[in-house]
Write a structure and sequence with these properties.
Largest sheet of chain B: 5 strands, antiparallel
Radius of gyration of chain A: 21 Å
Number of helices of chain A: 6
Oligomer: heterodimer
Order of helices and strands of chain A: HHHEEEEEEEHEEEEEEHHEEE
Number of strands of chain B: 41
Largest sheet of chain A: 14 strands, antiparallel, barrel
Helix content of chain B: under 10%
Strand order of the largest sheet of chain B: 1-5-4-3-2
Shape of chain B: elongated
Radius of gyration of chain B: 26 Å
Structural class of chain A: mainly beta
Largest interface: A-B, 62 and 55 residues
Number of helices of chain B: 3
Shape of chain A: globular
Helix content of chain A: under 10%
Strand order of the largest sheet of chain A: 1-2-3-4-5-6-7-10-11-12-13-14-15-16
Chain lengths: 350, 529
């Protein structure tokens, strides 16, 4: 209700669509994916991606590997490693591929078919976390971004361009003030080095785009910073552990750190029920847009309101291999073109 | 041992022969539709029309009620074309893609197509075959930029290569420089220098030949008008006789700089010469291009049009009327007083269109052609192109063109439209890559099986809504329309911006076309700014 009240104070119409770094906004990890992308307060896997402050709580070295098939040919794959350095300090490495390997049915301005192209992105993050108190930890990531896609068509051949950026930082604070409630605050995609040198805190993706007429057109995209508030409440349902997670993603400034015309808030909700000892059932409702149109312009709101409905499960495969877990998630793609699916395996070293 | 020592050489010769075959093979792909909607030049005679498009060349029998096209796809043509006696000669771009130190670099190649036999031939006159990129860049420019036909031969203005004569069979190519009486083999003029010929024999060697036109193709002997930047000459090949025309301008406030193009009216009784020249107005700081008519009485050039962007497209009507493209309008001059009788602009154009809205007034009129057909109505052709979709581009034509606004013939529109499967089973946006060098908009192409309200939306990789292009707009069934499409090209297009008009980030975007009838389609667009 608080989220709804906050969202209704905001102006209508979504604005983040088309801002740089769209591929960074989708949830990673099958568990989080099945829970509607609500996993920031207390992630159980891919902590470097979701909340680096959780790395300090790593009990063992954990390896996660997984991938995703999404509608319209979008794919992804990820690899994560998190481990404890000292009793109070944890560290994580995370790399994510996202792309579209088959961009077909491309035609030039004369409606002549072009060859198929592909979009590729790699994101790498290195995280470090430290326990401040027994209930509070802080964490930081430094990120690497790479994108590549065809940007022109010369003599019937696609010409690719790429952009790279190093130095995007994520800052995280995680606290568990109650025994069954934890919360987190995370700022993502901030270039602190530029802040310290007096410039805007943007992560610049510099493209050199070639074409027959202009061989080196420089284009700079600035990845949009995001503020995330996360919450996790642990309860019991039918005398079994039940968790409700909630993430609020706020987009207030663009990549230039200029205030957006329309600040935007998105709400993710997730549920996890440990129905059996080695089996989790998960569900979620993610990417729920909150703004004034809910009350004042329901027609426009209906156009833009396209939540992600997700389901999934997690299973402990210790009977197969000690420390092995599998997670699976399936969700609507928000467009009606199909479904998105993710699967991953976690391995806890003992 | 002999065998062993000769093996590498034999292999080398086989490779060289194979490379020669590959390099000389025509890089054309035959097609039965017009090769492109950006049309740059027109040429024709009798009942035959040729045109050069951005993506190749086409010809058709222009008197036929339904135009049946034969086409050849290639990106090697530079736009210059000549036609006569059942053969067309099309000039190719100098140089070949993928220039490397090992490959031959063609300075000047031409493509000859003979209608009677349906045969093609790529002709390399042999001006320069440099063996490296550095050599070709240091040499002269032999590009063929103008072609005329007369009595069994093609004549080509080859810039630094002079005037080239190619027999109709394409077996022989000889060149001559204006003012000279000596023909020479182009292969003797290699890398910008003569080989074995005294340069002093050619007085105009340093002058480029920029234009060539034939005066009266039906005359007993060939009479050409050949323009170098400095002089315009009359040339009678039979006698190898040259005679120059004055470059004086009747307006003393103008000063002549150089010739760009020459045009000759096909009148048999009197000579009517026109030329595009670079000139400078008195007191002006820079040169401009003007269109001039030669005044036989004053023996000087009189300016007709000033401040042209480039030499105008010119054609002559059935009774000697002069049509000139200037300022993207077609100006008609009926008589020698050079008073404009009619301007064909956007308004006139739309009134004359057969189907309203089928072809909006084009961005660029590149060429016009008046074709006299013995025993049939003459036809008038307009070649156009665009650099900003969605604007109609293509070919426009009328039959029985009258030099009178009150009684004008209707314009028909020829435009290549790719067939699209109905029922939204197929859709695409073109161009699929939006970048600053492109037309600025991606136009959606789709075909509804029945009329319906249509919504088109754009999404990013995370399927966040970027923009609603149209919402619940009425669109007809594609098969009910001439172009087989339901899309309204003016509205159903995306300029790469979001709802707030800001340019979206570089990336891949997804669109969804939804019809209330239940049909829907998805596709992808790449935005590269």
């Amino acid at each position: 209700m608080a989220c709804l009240c906050l969202g209704s104070a905001l102006n209508g119409w979504t604005q983040i669509g088309g801002l740089p770094g769209a591929y960074l906004r989708a949830p990673a990890g099958a568990a989080a994916f099945a829970m509607g992308g609500a996993q920031s307060a207390s992630p159980e896997q891919l902590c470097t991606w979701w909340n680096p402050a959780m790395l300090a709580y790593a009990r063992n070295t954990q390896l996660d590997i997984g991938g995703s098939l999404r509608s319209l040919g979008r794919t992804e794959g990820y690899l994560s490693l998190q481990y404890k350095i000292t009793p109070r300090v944890g560290m994580g490495l995370f790399t994510l591929y996202r792309g579209d390997p088959s961009i077909d049915k491309l035609y030039d301005e004369n409606e002549e078919p072009m060859e198929s192209g592909s979009f590729t992105s790699f994101t790498g993050k290195i995280g470090l976390s430290c326990l401040v108190t027994r209930k509070t930890s802080v964490g930081v990531n430094i990120a690497f971004y790479y994108e590549r896609l065809p940007t022109s068509n010369i003599h019937s051949s696609l010409q690719y361009s790429s952009a790279t950026a190093i130095g995007g930082f994520d800052f995280a604070l995680r606290s568990a003030p109650l025994k069954n409630w934890s919360c987190a605050v995370i700022l993502q995609n901030i270039d602190i080095l530029k802040v310290l040198s007096g410039k805007s805190a943007t992560v610049d993706m510099n493209w050199e785009i070639g074409s027959a007429e202009n061989l080196n057109a420089s284009v700079t995209d600035r990845i949009t910073p995001i503020a995330v508030l996360g919450s996790r409440l642990d309860m019991r349902l039918a005398d079994r552990p039940f968790a409700w997670t909630c993430d609020l993603h706020a987009y207030a400034v663009d990549g230039d750190f200029a205030k957006l015309d329309r600040m935007e808030i998105r709400l993710n909700n997730g549920f996890q029920w440990k129905r059996w000892d080695a089996f989790f059932i998960r569900a979620g409702l993610g990417d729920m847009l909150l703004n004034r149109n809910i009350f004042s312009n329901t027609s426009d709101f209906a156009d833009e309101f396209s939540p992600r409905v997700s389901l999934g499960f997690g299973a402990d495969l210790s009977k197969v291999q000690k420390g092995l877990r599998i997670n699976y998630g399936i969700a609507t793609d928000r467009l009606g073109a199909g479904v998105d699916q993710q699967i991953d395996f976690s391995y806890y070293f003992h | 041992m002999i065998f062993e020592s000769n093996v590498p050489r034999v292999i080398l010769w086989i490779c060289a022969a194979w490379a020669a075959v590959v390099c000389s093979a025509p890089p054309f792909t035959a097609t039965q539709e017009i090769t492109g909607n950006d049309i740059y030049s027109l040429c024709g005679h009798g009942d035959t029309l040729w045109m050069v498009t951005k993506l190749g060349a086409n010809f058709t029998f222009a008197t036929s009620d339904s135009l049946i096209w034969q086409g050849y796809k290639t990106d090697s043509l530079n736009g210059a074309i000549g036609f006569g006696d059942g053969a067309a000669l099309l000039c190719m771009r100098a140089g070949i893609q993928n220039i490397t130190a090992e490959k031959a670099v063609y300075a000047n190649r031409l493509w000859l197509h003979k209608h009677s036999s349906g045969t093609d031939k790529v002709i390399d006159p042999g001006f320069t075959k440099a063996d490296s990129l550095s050599a070709i860049s240091a040499s002269a420019d032999f590009s063929a930029i103008d072609v005329a036909w007369s009595r069994g031969s093609f004549w080509s203005a080859c810039l630094d290569g002079g005037l080239l004569r190619i027999t109709g069979s394409g077996d022989s190519a000889l060149a001559i420089f204006p003012g000279s009486k000596k023909w020479f083999q182009p292969s003797l003029f290699t890398n910008g220098a003569f080989s074995g010929i005294s340069k002093a024999s050619f007085p105009d060697t340093l002058q480029r030949v920029v234009s060539v036109k034939v005066q009266d193709t039906s005359a007993a002997s060939t009479l050409l008008w050949v323009a170098t930047p400095e002089k315009l000459r009359k040339f009678i090949p039979r006698d190898t006789a040259w005679d120059s025309v004055t470059s004086s301008l009747s307006d003393s406030k103008l000063s002549f700089k150089h010739y760009r193009q020459v045009y000759v009216a096909p009148d048999r009784d009197s000579l009517r010469l026109f030329a595009a020249m670079t000139i400078r107005n008195q007191g002006a700081q820079s040169d401009t291009i003007g269109f001039f008519a030669f005044d036989n009485n004053k023996n000087a050039w009189t300016m007709v049009l000033n401040n042209l962007d480039s030499p105008p497209a010119v054609t002559f009507g059935q009774n000697g009327e002069l049509y000139v493209v200037w300022g993207n309008q077609i100006h008609l001059y009926k008589d020698t007083t050079m008073t404009i009788a009619l301007r064909i602009n956007g308004d006139v154009f739309q009134k004359r269109m057969t189907l309203a809205g089928a072809g909006a007034y084009p961005d660029h009129i590149n060429d016009i052609l008046f074709l006299n057909h013995p025993g049939a109505d003459a036809s008038f052709w307009i070649a156009s192109s665009t650099n900003s979709l969605p604007t109609s581009n293509g070919l426009f034509f009328s039959r029985g063109e009258k030099a009178d606004e009150a009684d004008t013939a209707a314009f028909h529109y020829v435009h290549r439209d790719k067939k699209i499967t109905p029922g939204l089973r197929e859709s695409y946006a073109f161009p699929g890559i939006l970048n600053s060098a492109g037309p600025g908009k991606a136009v959606f192409a789709y075909n509804l099986s029945r009329s319906s309200k249509v919504t088109i939306r754009i999404f990013d990789w995370n399927m966040d809504l970027v923009k609603t292009i149209i919402k619940d707009r009425d669109r007809p069934a594609g098969n009910d329309r001439a172009n087989g499409r339901s899309a309204d090209a003016a509205e159903d297009s995306w300029d790469g911006t979001n709802t707030y008009g800001k340019r979206v980030a570089v990336g891949v975007y997804y669109y969804k076309i939804t019809a209330q009838s239940g049909e829907h389609s998805f596709g992808k667009i790449i935005v590269a700014k």
